[in-house]
Design a protein that fits this description.
Blueprint (H helix, E strand, L loop, with lengths): L2 H30 L8 H26 L17 E6 L5 E7 L10 E3 L3 H6 L7 E6 L2 E11 L2
Helix pairs in contact: 1-2
GO molecular function, one term: translation elongation factor activity
InterPro entries: GreA/GreB_C_sf, TF_GreA/GreB_CS, Tscrpt_elong_fac_GreA, Tscrpt_elong_fac_GreA/B, Tscrpt_elong_fac_GreA/B_C, Tscrpt_elong_fac_GreA/B_fam, Tscrpt_elong_fac_GreA/B_N, Tscrpt_elong_fac_GreA/B_N_sf
Family: Belongs to the GreA/GreB family.
Amino acid sequence: MTRAGHTALDAELKHLKSEERPAVIRAIAEAREHGDLSENAEYHAAREKQSFIEGRIKELEGLLSLAEVIDPARLSGAIKFGATVTLVDEDTDEEKTYQIVGEAEADIESGLLNIKSPLARALIGKEEGDSVEVRTPGGERSYEVLSIRYV
């Protein structure tokens, strides 16, 4: 995972532990004070939220403990993990820029492309000027690699 992805996940983990977890514990305590728990919707909602928070905390702790942080600025050459790639769709002439990142930090709307996606797999090893054919759920797409940066 990239340094930025690691930092973002670590910040989310700290937020969950320091703010969300104590808030949901207070909400459960308040709901218990209202009496009968079997028909207490506030209590059940708070317990459900607590379950989600605890699950996410465990997931983040696992991801962060196993993460290998790679600094893309130290890389160069053909496309590999961490590369920021500018592509042009050969059919529509639309330019797009993506950074190839790990699964945990991927967010296509933010331009963070999952390394396991069909597009990222097709791009690995390509150079500037290369043409790439990608089979996507929407059909075959052709892209040309305009630039490769390691930031």
